Amino acid sequence: MGLVRPILIKRINNEILGLNDHLNIRISAVPENAGFPIEISIVLKNTPAKISKDETGNEHGFIIIVSEDYPYERPRAKWMTPIFHPNIMMPEDGGFVCVKTLDNWSFGSSLLSFVKGVEQLISDPNPMNPYGTDSCMEAAKWYVRNKPKFEAKVRYGGHDA
What we know:
Radius of gyration: 19 Å
Distance between the termini: 66 Å
Strand order of the largest sheet: 1-2-3
Strand content: 15-25%
Structural class: alpha+beta
Helix content: 25-40%
Largest sheet: 3 strands, antiparallel
Number of helices: 4
Order of helices and strands: HEEEHHHEE
CATH architecture: Roll
Number of strands: 5
Shape: elongated
């Protein structure tokens, strides 16, 4: 059993205000008589991420789905745009998002912490823990093979070491 409906709607609307401030956008408030589930559609713009091995996209969309048992029950997420990522399924495979903040969801978590987790996941995929879909497995292999590489050299006294 979740929060009393007026308190739940108030909490969701307060969290939407936090999303508005963080994302610098305007998400409408949820009316008191809104039916559940509530779906919040988010589009991340100017956010580079692979959409295939060879192509990077800058606009990515997903939906946060909030049930009447929120915040005791974590929200669900569904990815809506193509993405080449080990931890986010392509929309045709279900669009599931593996975000640690969802795994560790608690009453004190918020929609803003979830969105920040998605932002972090896009910029820092975890190829060692991919979903089992073909596209996620392929993305995991690609990210392992193409991880950043470093070279370093020490110079001292005007000479190479």
